[in-house]
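Form 12-C: Joint structure prediction
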Amino acid sequence: MILIDGKETAGKIKLEIAEEVKKIIATGGKRPHLATVLVGSDAASETYVNYKVKDCEQVGFASSMLRFDESIPEQELLDKVSELNLDQDIDGFIVQLPLPAHISETKVIEAIDPAKDVDGFHPVNTGRLLIGMPCFESATPAGIIELIKRYNIETSGKHCVIIGRSNIVGKPIAALLAQKRDPGNCTVTVCHSRTRNIKELTLQADIIIAAMGQPGFLTADMVREGVVVIDVGTTRVKSDQTKSGFKLKGDVDFEGVAPKCSYITPMPGGVGPMTRVSLLLNTLKAAKKEIYS
Amino acid sequence: MILIDGKETAGKIKLEIAEEVKKIIATGGKRPHLATVLVGSDAASETYVNYKVKDCEQVGFASSMLRFDESIPEQELLDKVSELNLDQDIDGFIVQLPLPAHISETKVIEAIDPAKDVDGFHPVNTGRLLIGMPCFESATPAGIIELIKRYNIETSGKHCVIIGRSNIVGKPIAALLAQKRDPGNCTVTVCHSRTRNIKELTLQADIIIAAMGQPGFLTADMVREGVVVIDVGTTRVKSDQTKSGFKLKGDVDFEGVAPKCSYITPMPGGVGPMTRVSLLLNTLKAAKKEIYS
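Section 2 - Result
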């Protein structure tokens, strides 16, 4: 069993990005610049945005954080988005979700220039993703693909069973792994809450991506020997073993499942760090105009 | 075994559309207007565009056909697209594909206003489709969904195996049937040329959508009793039984498979007529501003 070390891989990728930034600067190029937009003061959102700023610092990106009061009118936020679209110095930006109820997330996301949409949430990017065109892939699926690449996990002709059909994980990773490319070329099955016989399906899988947010859902009896398991779940569960009184649990019963796997991601330290680093990779692509010229 | 009669269903839908157009006109509304753009003189494209014009006439839509010489420069075509985007009288338009090699289909498609993209090929529409937002669904998957609806075929919790991963059929119908809605909520498996064990998968299917363009591929031994089979294949094969010297064949060995089915589409007369009528339904939605306001 090989442990897919997302933390280590993300660390390596950060060093690679930092190296590339140095080269860009050395050859007279502009420092890649990510802006983050934060509306209100949701604690989790604060944390995520702070991580993003810190990640930028680590790789040598410029970063800007734009904070707005929770009461900002929708139109004012849309105007800010337009300004960021036009700002030549900013290569990519993200609007941290969720937004307050009086603001349409859809409107805001669709107002972002797809060429600066490093979160990959604009329909132009999700649409390009579905049909296999160059696009900004959203962070978690992009991180999973990167792990598969870096661990040289064979995907062609493999049966990948995805549990969960969220817009930010299940649907895009299904589309990516079915594409005619490498990694890709998987036979892909998408399961979800309405699926009647999940175990029957997971027992056929060469690769399982668990992304439905049910702690410990995937158990040893549901997988066959040699399977590759990617755990995307991160659910807060109560715990008396931590100071905070809770801990994050994945969708996979790691202790039971791991011995049967050829590869498995731990939780934490698997997909999570890769999600964070994917935003940096997208920002670098935006700065280099790799997707949209 | 119930035969899913696409021809009859499409006929009914046309009458419904015609009825609605009459009402729109009677209440002082504008007649829905579809424009088709044809570049060059490809024989198949000519036929398709002529069908579209004829279909419009039948339901009382206005239609315009814009023809351009094969040598039209890309920029000139893009300018035409911009004109159509701005033309208040035109509710929706399609640019018949394929385009000559010197014109980028991607550029042309992305230049179309998504609100007028009744073919549903613009990434904003395919992206919205993937994430389950209102959109213009492309014609063939929309036609399949409409057939499933009108025949009250249960999809929730059913295992749908899709053979083929094209951008215009396999990928979008997979996304549509996995959505949390009705029809939808299927467990969806996408198979393709790299899938190793298609028969093993089709034997588990409650619903099979055959869309890979291999005449007669799906045979009786590959399906279980009670399955629903939708045949999307239309391949020209040589025939000495027709004047033209060829006939269209589906991906399903109808004679062998049909006796085992609860529902099956014939070929011709199944999905084909529904594909045509879907364009009319999309144009009506565009005229009524049902998707984009």
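Section 3 - Comments
The radius of gyration of chain A is 19 Å. Chain A has ten helices and eleven strands.
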